[in-house]
Amino acid sequence: MPTSQSALFEEPERHAPLASRLRPQNLDSFVGQEHLLAAGAPLAKAIAEGNLHSFLLWGPPGVGKTTLARLCAGTAGAQFHPLSAVLSGVKEIRQAIDLARVGQGQGLRTVLFVDEVHRFNKAQQDAFLPHVEDGTITFIGATTENPSFEVNAALLSRVRVYRLRSLEQRHLVSILEYALSSQFPDLQLEEGILNALAISADGDARRALSQLEIANDLAFVSEQGARVVNQKVFEEIGQGSLRRFDKGGDAFYDQISALHKSVRGSDPDASLYWFARMLDGGCDPLYIARRVVRMASEDIGNADPRALELALNAWQVQERLGSPEGELAVAQAVVYLACAAKSNAVYMAFKGAQRAVSESGSLDVPDHLRNAPTALMREQGHGEGYRYAHDEPEGYAAGENYWPSEMGPVNFYRPVDRGLEARIREKLAHLRALDLAAQDKESH
């Protein structure tokens, strides 16, 4: 007989963590992820109809990945077999497949749920493929990392990917209110503490419930005999700075991307916010300082060359003084770059030059541009016909060619009409006019 939904969701032991005791047993009690679970949404429809399919749940911790996997199995009346990629290997995978085959013989389907699937190596991930293909298992994986980088292409092509979002403050407040009424009915939270717990949880329901458990343990008894959690108790929970930041993961690269794009978009306030977020998450300030130097060259360039100098100075200050003094210098550079005139003309010109080099091969240096330190080299024509620019009118050898003869001039650098580059643009336009005049004179 198929396993009943109630059997899959037996009451956890009383000593289990609060998050386990309060795990939702149906979609009606699930909080958050409205983009996936609204009426008619693919995942909601699959769960409601018991329509099993293999998928990956990608999202931050504590947002309901395991719960959704259990709900999917439960509504379909399937066996639910969980594996942790942290603790399991190929041996455990084979054992799970054997159990699934036994279930098949009894007319049961099996959901194989793999938590932290990104921790499995390629060979371990490949071990699922034939069994997903032949229907022995319905594979559900959970990961906090970007599947594009952490899950191999063969497995990724056989599953759908659902992106879960961090829970909003209103979601966490709702979860905490339910936990209070159902688990701690005699516990009183002073005004503002509930919202403070929700904010401190940073989108993670598991963390919110864990903090509530700790608050319950630390609550004091008032003169009226009530158990109370006040601001002092909340501070004793000691969560500190726990904003999400993974040094090697998506949060890291997403936040440095947000900082870079805020600077490029000339928003100093947003730039400072993302800078502060990364520091708060534990990012090495020297990493940010190096990236700020990159921003100065890539996005400001010659529109304001002082930006690069200021960025380099900020990096040096951070190296010499460390935190927190050095961080102010980096913040100064971030704000200056955000406010500076923007130009990616040098960046684009350099990329164009690199592309031209890779496409044109090893073209010879023209004789007139070659070095001629010896008599033999001069006899070979090296340097012959070269015009020394300082001896020419305006210090410019109008009409001179500095390109390989097989290639000819290419316009890589196109200064923008902003900041100092506006003047550079005028200067280059004047020099090109001199070139045209010299060519006209030559042709006549």
Task: Describe what you observe in this structure.
By secondary structure, the chain is of the alpha/beta class. It folds into four domains: 5-163, P-loop containing nucleotide triphosphate hydrolases (Rossmann fold); 169-236, Orthogonal Bundle (Helicase, Ruva Protein, domain 3), CATH 1.10.8.60; 250-339, Zinc Finger, Delta Prime, domain 3, CATH 1.20.272.10; 362-443, post-AAA+ oligomerization domain-like (Orthogonal Bundle). 52% of the residues lie in helices and 8% in strands. The chain is built from 22 helices and eight strands. It has helices at residues 5-8, 18-21, 34-37, 42-49, 65-75, 90-105, 122-126, 129-133, 147-150, 153-156, 169-183, 193-201, 205-218, 231-236, 250-264, 268-280, 285-300, 306-321, 325-339, 345-360, 375-379, 419-443; strands at 55-58, 79-84, 110-115, 138-143, 160-163, 187-189, 220-221, 227-229. Strands 2-3-4-1-5 form a five-stranded parallel β-sheet, sandwiched between helices. Strands 6-8-7 form a three-stranded mixed β-sheet. The longest helix is centred in the C-terminal third of the chain and has 25 residues, at 419-443. The chain is elongated. Residues 1-12 have low confidence and may be disordered.
Give a short synopsis of this structure:
With 444 residues, the chain is an alpha/beta fold.
Highlighted features:
22 helices, 444 residues, 5-stranded parallel beta sheet, single chain, Zinc Finger, Delta Prime, domain 3, Rossmann fold, alpha/beta, Helicase, Ruva Protein, domain 3, 4 domains
